[in-house]
Amino acid sequence: MNETFEGPDGKSRCRWCDAVPEFLDYHDQEWGYPVSDDIRLFEKLCLESFQSGLSWRTILAKRESFRAAFSGFDFHKVAQFDEATVKRLLQDSSIVRHRGKIEAVINNAKRAIEMVKKEGSIASFVWRYEPDPSSLGPPQSQSTSDTSVALSKELKKRGWKFVGPTTVYAFMQAMGLINDHAEGCVFREKAETLRSEFERPA
Questions:
Q1: CA separation, residue 150 to residues 76, 112, 202 (Å)
Q2: Which of 40, 84, 95, 99 is deepest in the core (most CB within 10 A)?
Q3: Enzyme catalytic residues
Q4: Residues 121-158 pLDDT 10s
């Protein structure tokens, strides 16, 4: 999977972002760059859980609708959602109407609040699971890792839902815990520079 294609500007990029037009900006501007903001980290975990069994294109196309439906993924607000809110969201055609996943977001918001109280931030917790790059295979050659398995296991132990190892690995790729841009992708160097300058949360 470690392949590239020539983008509209003549620069090489990860081949996966050539699949549909909306992937290009996501790849160039977000994917693989380190994130320490708790809201963004929580949002990505939630969106990855919604993707389970679906395509990322479906989720990305609905991302703004998800943000509107889930109060910008402010987990303090989402934790207050009740059954009436769930019923309303199940009628919202602009998002994925899956009761289990909607309820998981609400549950995970409560778990996120607990995590912040115990660990200081979501960021400080998840970044402890940043893998040693030498422990990983070639870029985009795997869908799980020892660290994604370990993080998934600990999240589940803490009561989080829809956070399997594959979901967690995709989260780690996107949030910059792993630089999984293909060899030859011009954004691999940018991601690596940002990772080297990134101050890991204490």
A1: 26, 18, 19
A2: 95
A3: 26, 48, 56
A4: 999 999 999 999 999 999 999 999 999 999 999 999 99
Q: Are the beta carbons of 145 and 138 closer than 8 angstroms?
A: no
Query: Which amino acid, one-letter code, is at 193?
Result: T
**Beta carbons of 172 and 178 less than 8 angstroms apart:** yes
What is the DSSP annotation of the chain? ---EEE-TTS-EEEGGGGSSHHHHHHHHHTTT-----HHHHHHHHHHHHHHTTS-HHHHHHTHHHHHHHTGGG-HHHHTT--HHHHHHHTT-TTS---HHHHHHHHHHHHHHHHHHHHHS-HHHHHGGGPPPGGGS-STT--S--HHHHHHHHHHHHTT--S--HHHHHHHHHHTTSS--PPTT-HHHHHHHHHHHH-----
Q: Position of tokens 């509209």? A: 8
